[in-house]
Design goal:
The protein has helices at residues 2-19, 21-26; strands at residues 30-37, 46-53, 63-79, 84-87, 98-106, 113-120, 124-139. By secondary structure, it is α+β, with helices and mostly antiparallel strands. The chain is globular, with a radius of gyration of 16 Å. The N and C termini lie far apart (48 Å).
Length: 140
């Protein structure tokens, strides 16, 4: 039974990495620009577009953009010393490196539910909830 649980966990991690390959590519990269698109009243999804500098490649000037659309997107600043979490603007992430993402996906509740946290330097994060579409827009 334990082996089955380990296999399920490994498959789940592989599925996450394949599903969000854009996030895998961006890990360790510096966010150089972010914009939040205003949603129409008829649209249930919020959208942010974040631009990363590709510091892993040979061409240090290469940049690329990732679009994230989801039901709910919140940008936070966590202060571990004070134990507080404060909502901030996307502009606060400029110059911060994207460190890691943690995803939780549950298909057992009737419709897929996603909780995704993108962690950045100095306690900043982007919290994504609900249906999500993550895609790379363009490379320069």
């Amino acid at each position: 039974m334990v082996n089955n649980m380990i296999e399920e966990l490994e498959l789940s991690e592989e599925w996450v990495e394949d599903t969000w390959k854009e996030l895998e590519q961006a890990r360790g990269e510096k966010l150089i620009k972010g914009t939040k698109k205003r949603s129409k009243k008829s649209d249930d999804l919020e959208e942010i577009i974040i631009t990363f500098e590709d510091t892993d490649g040979l061409d240090l000037e290469e940049i690329y953009q990732i679009s994230i659309k989801a039901n709910n997107i919140v940008i936070d600043k966590h202060d571990n010393k004070k134990g507080t979490v404060k909502s901030v603007g996307l502009a606060q992430l400029k110059g911060k490196r994207f460190l890691e993402y943690i995803a939780y996906h549950d298909d057992n509740l009737g419709e897929p539910i996603l909780q995704l946290t993108m962690a950045f330097e100095k306690g900043y994060s982007i919290e994504i909830a609900g249906s999500a579409i993550i895609q790379q827009l363009k490379s320069k």
